[in-house]
Amino acid sequence: MSLSLSGSTRNLPQYGALVAVLLANWLLFPDFFSIRLQDGRLFGSLVDVMNRGAPVALLAIGMTMVIATRGVDLSVGAIMAISGAIAATMTQAGWGLSAVLAASLASGLLCGLWNGVLVAVLRIQPIIATLILMVAGRGIAQLVTEGQIVTFVSPDLAAIGSGSFLTVPMPVVLTVAMLGLTALLVRMTALGLMIESVGVNRLSSAYAGVNTPVILIAVYVWCGLCAAVAGLIVTADIRGADANNAGLWLELDAILAVVVGGTSLLGGRFGLLMSVVGAAILQAMNTGILLSGFKPEFNLIVKAAVLLVVLLAQSPALTTLLPRPRGAQPIKPHPVAPKRTTP
Amino acid sequence: MIQRFLPLIVTMAVLVVGFLLCAAQFPNFASLRVVGNLLTDNAFVGIAAAGMTFVILSGGIDLSVGAVIGFTTVLLAVLIEQAGIHPMVAFALALIVGAGFGAAMGAVIHWFQMPPFIVTLAGMFIARGVSFVLTTDSLPINHPLYSDLNEVAWRFSGGGRLSLPAMLLLGVFALSMLLAHWTRFGANIYALGGNRHSAELMGVPVARTTVGVYALSGLLAGLAGIVFSLYTGAGYSLAATGVELDTITAVVIGGTQLTGGYGLVLGTFGGVLIQGLIQTYITFDGTMSSWWTKIAIGVLLFVFILLQKGLLAVWSDRDGDPAEA
């Protein structure tokens, strides 16, 4: 598990990359690390990186566990749009904050339940099962907003996006809270182990007594919840819901953050904190590109380069080609397809 | 035999019934003009979807096609308008770049044993990123050849026309069917998608087939980009965002199994037209909002996937082979 001692050395590349990107930003922009307190809230580039990275970090938390079960959730961007649309529309209609939050989060849970049932009960491939909601979800969000960009005036709801708690911006607080809650759920119980075992081999896990459908559904439901929180933050931040563009392509950023964080797309071992670090690396790079005066258009190419480097480093083929450090035993490549076992 | 053709029959039945329902509601619907426009408007999606069919049949996926279409339109605009290259030469270059890009992704997928999903995702970022770097503006293409090519059409009596993009669409599907069903390359793709390990043991050249499949998808995405650039007369780096999903949806509605190995190219053609039909219906109706298109396509996608699952369960019971572990 990632909390163990051996795990901390395994994660050195990620921490190294984060430090390197932050140092590069500092070289480009000497004020990068300066943080000042103004109107009871922290300001500064570093705070900005965490604040802007919060939605992707939240998505990455849910996505990590989905990917650990050898799945993927393409619908998180659409779920963000739905939860944001519900929050904005209900606030505009005069509902109170608690009702708005409950309905918005419930929509995320419901979307996650739908994905989970498709994957776990109907046994549809995760890419395709979640593609359905990715395609239809934006339509549903537009149905909620009736095709308009709904804006609202509510200091309560807006505080989720731009407020602060003990001087820390609210999105960062929510992300840390979700990370803590999720880590508590999966690492202090056997849940995390079961998620990993389902990802390594669904059939053997089922034979070993793991209730695989329930685990899978729970994972997608949690991913939906994380996406709903991210959607709330984005909506509260811009004080409006844009069903067409809210969370657009963020599912890809979230997958990228998980991959950069070192969780294998082939399922199994996962690191929640590492995925959040991955999201921070991506956001820090983004900020760096903007600060350095490069055109923001370079951002996508840099992302692709990072993705390829990380993938190549993880590639089973490359691991066997390169010599192992300090006489370690070469590990066998991860099987590309699960071997078919006859029960 | 019925197993192989049942999904195709269902897809085509949905298409025909859908068209008849539309025609019953709007008398003007059943005209060659509408059919011609349906083919023209969906030509670029259809051409890319033909390539996607091969990728999915081989057991892979290609998320980069939309980005390659966008990149091709930008490349054409830059080559023709800024570098002054003749459009025909630019077309050839665009096709070579598209095929080369696809081949490179296929090579990475095969030799580094990486999931196609994530490799083509990186490809999507690269293709969009390079087009952003080339230009963020929409560049108009004013070469006289463009207006000439847009005039090329087979005109029917009654005002309908089969435009050049529509002809290309039909041509691509005719050739794709030949390639899939009557060549060794096609047979290799089906074998690879059915079971990679057995295909390897059988002597299927896995490396060549994998690279070839992604190169073909890249080539057809390049062609779709040329068609899109003819259709809009401009190069824009954000063009055709999300088309990869439209093409995957078309392939699924067309009855191809996403696990690879089963499916027909003609089904994808039906899938593209069904999506186009929904859009045309909503345009005809005039009062419905465009977001219904997305919901309708999502529902359709769901129904077709369930249908596939049901069929697969029935067959695997008969064969005594578990459909999946």
UniProtKB/TrEMBL annotation, chain A:
GO terms for cellular component: plasma membrane. It comes from the Bacteria. Pfam families: BPD_transp_2. InterPro entries: ABC_transp_permease. Residues 324-343 are annotated as: Disordered. The keyword Protein transport does not apply. GO terms for molecular function: transmembrane transporter activity. Keywords: Cell membrane, Membrane, Transmembrane, Transmembrane helix. The keyword Transmembrane helix applies. It is a multi-pass membrane protein. It is found in: Cell membrane. The chain crosses the membrane at residues 12-29, 74-95, 101-122, 127-145, 165-186, 207-234, 246-266, 273-294, 300-322. This is ABC transporter permease. It comes from Azospirillum cavernae.
UniProtKB/TrEMBL annotation, chain B:
One of its GO terms (molecular function) is transmembrane transporter activity. Keywords: Cell membrane, Membrane, Transmembrane, Transmembrane helix. The chain crosses the membrane at residues 6-26, 38-57, 63-80, 89-112, 118-141, 162-182, 211-231, 295-315. It is a multi-pass membrane protein. InterPro entries: ABC_transp_permease. Coiled coil: none annotated. It is found in: Cell membrane. It comes from the Bacteria. Its main location: membrane. One of its GO terms (cellular component) is plasma membrane. This is Sugar ABC transporter permease YjfF. It comes from Azospirillum cavernae.
